[in-house]
Structure formats: structure tokens, C-alpha cells
Design goal:
- There is one protein chain.
- By secondary structure, the protein is an alpha+beta fold.
- It has four helices and 17 strands.
- Strands 1, 2, 3, 4, 5, 6, 7, 8, 9, 10, 11, 12 and 13 form a 13-stranded antiparallel β-sheet that branches.
- Residues 1-41 and 72-80 have low confidence and may be disordered.
Length: 407
């Protein structure tokens, strides 16, 4: 009788274990020893430095206006001042380049605020040339030349960014600009060879605004393309007559002059590369209050398989994602590991990008089912950590997968 009771008990234990195994979720297996390194999903937060290069296009304007009377005895001799106002745009281009540094705060998976400062060599060279008859035609014409240059340009800007997916950042930017614009003016009056000249230089401040896009190459590097409009304000100065003795000798008043008024504007198109320093590790969790540590729940792994060279989730994969989301919701909120993999067909670089796309697609599907995106660590491992070891170039279905690890 005692042996019969023991046999029944053993059968009950075996049956309960079999039932527990039957209720386990499909594709569940032990958690890997350590999570893989994160890729571009968190590259945007923190401090970064980099360099840039591009082209500048002149967008300044100039006006030269006469002051004073031109002829001895008063302007009434010809009815008005024969000098007239000249105006136009300073066209020109130049190369520029330098460095930048900044800091980003990623406020949510899709929103970023940042600040950036840069200092660049500015090779912009622009000029304006015009020759026009005077209002008194018998007195000839005036030739004007205005040139503008700048060797240094810096900005201090804020940035507001939108992150459509972990690898892309789109942003608008605006702030302070400063530089050292220089300009020279020369005018030649054909009657009696009267010449005028003037110049201006010095440090000036203004404003800048623009937009750009940045692409994460991995956990630390990114490249960007950027447009900026720069306005350093308006400068005015007097072009003094340079040969007063010659003009006075033939009875002309040596007092007239030109007033030069010009803006210092340019448009910049450039590309750049940034190195992002690793964000500080999170603070360790506080130790439990009670002396005995709470038992850790058993980790579960859900595997979503993909067709060869595809990142589209199949109907079977969607079912696995649904189960993973339900498993997450049934327990306390914790960080999930969403890791993509490929087989060994294709190049390592292509496979790395394919694994990241697969992981990001699964993460988006999880988010659509109510799992917060900031609770997921999304990464790709390419053709590393094969589920089924193979030689290079082999198409193995078991290796084309995304693993979702959840307590």
C-alpha cells in the first residue's frame, strides 16, 4: 500500500510538470548571459564634438548715396546734385569649415533639445560693380566698386529636434552669430577725375537660423547636413574724396562725398561629422529594505523569425510579438531587450544594418501594442551570435530573427 501511494504521488508530480511545459510560450529559451551593445537608439543624448565643411554664398546689399553739394556756387547751377544713389547686391561665394561642440537632451523617444557652438574659417568673397551716367549728362559718369570679405564666423545656437526613428534626427536651429566682416569702396568720377574711397572692418554680432538632418552611424558617430542663414547687421561709413587738390584746381567743391551703407548677410550649406561621448551609466537600483532578497522572476525569450533579406514582420511573427507584449503587461514594468540578428549571407556591414531594421520594426510593433518605447533597449547584432552556427554565406532561417527578452 505504501508503494502504491508513492507511485501515485510521482505520477501527479510528473503530470503537473508536463502541464506547465505545455503552457509555456512558444520559442521561449534562457536569457543570454549579457545583453548586446546598444546601437544608434541612444546616440543622441549627451555631449558631442565634430567638424564641418561647406560653402558660403553672399546675400548682402549695398547703397552709395551722395552727400553735400558737388559744384562751387551751389547745386542750383545744374538744378540738382548731379551725383545719384547707386544700389545693388554683392554676389560671391567661398569655402568654409571648422569645428563644433554641443550637448543634447533627449526628452522623449521622438523629442530632443540641444545647444551647439561652432567656430569656422569663412572664405566668402563678394563684390559689386556698377557704372552709371550722372543726372547731368555733360558731366560724364561714375564707376563704383564695393568688395566684402570675412575670415571668421562663429555661432551659438539652440536646437529643437524630431527623431522619426532611432537613426535619424531632424532639427531646426537659431541663435547668436558673430564674425569680422570687412568692406572697401572706391568710386571714380570721370569729370576731372574725382576719386572717392572708404572702408570698414571690425567684430560684429547678429543672428542665424536654419535647419538640418543628422544620421547615426552607430553608438558614437553621426553625419549631418545643415543650412544656415547669417545676418551680421548693417554697416555705414563715408567715402572721402582722395584727390581734393586736383578737383579744387578746376573750381569744384572738394566737400562732396558718398555715404556707403551695406549689409553683411550670407547663406551657408555644409556637411559635418560628430563623435558622441557615451552617456553615463544609470544609477544602480537601491538595495531592498528587507534582508532577504526577493526572488527574481524567470526570464522569457520570444523569437520573431524573418524571411531571407527581409525586415517585414510575418503574420506568425506578429503573433509572437502579441504574446511578448502580453507577457510584459502581466508583470512590473522593466526594461526589455529587443535584439536583431541575421544569417551569414551578405556582407557584415549590410547584415548589421538589416538586423537593426528588424529590431526597430519589432520595437515599433511592441509600442503599438502598448509597450512604452523607452522601456526597450533596441539593438542589432548582425551576423554575430548565430542560433545555428554556419559557414559564411549560408542562408539559415533560424539565424534570421529578433529576440525579445522580458521578465
Amino acid at each position: 500500500m505504501r508503494h502504491s501511494i508513492k507511485g501515485v504521488a510521482a505520477a501527479l508530480v510528473l503530470a503537473s510538470g508536463t502541464a506547465a511545459l505545455a503552457q509555456a510560450p512558444p520559442y521561449a529559451e534562457p536569457v543570454p548571459a549579457a545583453p548586446p551593445m546598444m546601437t544608434g537608439a541612444n546616440v543622441w543624448s549627451g555631449f558631442y564634438v565634430g567638424g564641418n565643411a561647406g560653402a558660403a554664398f553672399g546675400d548682402s546689399s549695398v547703397a552709395l548715396s551722395p552727400t553735400g553739394c558737388f559744384l562751387t556756387g551751389g547745386c542750383a547751377i545744374v538744378g540738382n546734385n548731379p551725383l545719384r544713389t547707386f544700389s545693388g547686391n554683392l554676389g560671391g561665394t567661398g569655402l568654409n569649415g571648422g569645428g563644433q561642440a554641443g550637448y543634447n537632451w533627449q526628452l522623449s523617444p521622438s523629442l530632443l533639445l540641444g545647444v551647439e557652438a561652432d567656430a569656422d574659417y569663412d572664405g566668402l568673397r563678394a563684390s559689386y560693380n556698377a557704372t552709371s551716367s550722372l543726372s547731368a549728362p555733360l558731366l560724364g559718369n561714375v564707376s563704383n566698386n564695393v568688395s566684402q570679405s570675412q575670415d571668421f564666423l562663429g555661432t551659438l545656437r539652440g536646437r529643437v529636434g524630431f527623431i522619426p526613428n532611432p537613426s535619424w534626427l531632424l532639427y531646426a536651429t537659431a541663435g547668436l552669430a558673430y564674425g569680422d566682416p570687412k568692406s572697401t569702396t572706391s568710386s571714380s568720377f570721370s569729370f576731372a577725375g574725382a576719386n572717392y574711397a572708404g572702408s570698414s572692418s571690425g567684430f560684429k554680432t547678429g543672428w542665424t537660423a536654419g535647419a538640418g538632418a543628422e544620421w547615426a552611424l552607430g553608438a558614437f558617430w553621426s553625419v549631418k547636413a545643415e543650412y544656415l542663414y547669417v545676418d551680421l547687421g548693417t554697416t555705414s561709413y563715408t567715402d572721402a574724396i582722395t584727390n581734393a587738390a586736383a578737383v579744387g584746381a578746376i573750381g569744384l567743391n572738394p566737400q562732396p562725398s558718398f555715404q556707403t551703407r551695406l549689409t553683411s548677410n550670407e547663406q551657408i550649406v555644409r556637411i559635418g561629422v560628430n563623435y558622441h561621448f557615451a552617456a553615463p551609466p544609470p544609477m544602480p537600483p537601491a538595495p531592498p529594505v528587507v534582508g532577504v532578497p526577493a526572488p527574481m522572476p524567470a526570464a522569457r525569450v520570444f523569437i520573431v523569425f524573418f524571411d531571407w533579406d527581409k525586415d517585414v514582420i510575418t503574420p506568425e511573427g506578429a503573433g509572437i510579438i502579441q504574446q511578448a507584449a502580453e507577457a510584459y503587461k502581466s508583470g512590473a514594468p522593466v526594461q526589455l531587450q529587443v535584439t536583431g540578428y541575421t544569417d551569414r549571407s551578405g556582407s557584415p556591414g549590410y547584415n548589421q544594418r538589416l538586423s537593426e531594421r528588424r529590431a526597430n520594426n519589432v520595437a515599433r510593433a511592441m509600442a503599438a501594442l502598448g509597450v512604452p518605447r523607452d522601456e526597450m533597449v533596441v539593438s542589432g547584432r548582425g551576423e554575430n551570435d548565430n542560433r545555428v552556427p554556419t559557414a559564411d554565406g549560408v542562408r539559415e532561417p533560424q539565424n534570421r530573427r529578433v529576440e525579445i527578452v522580458t521578465p
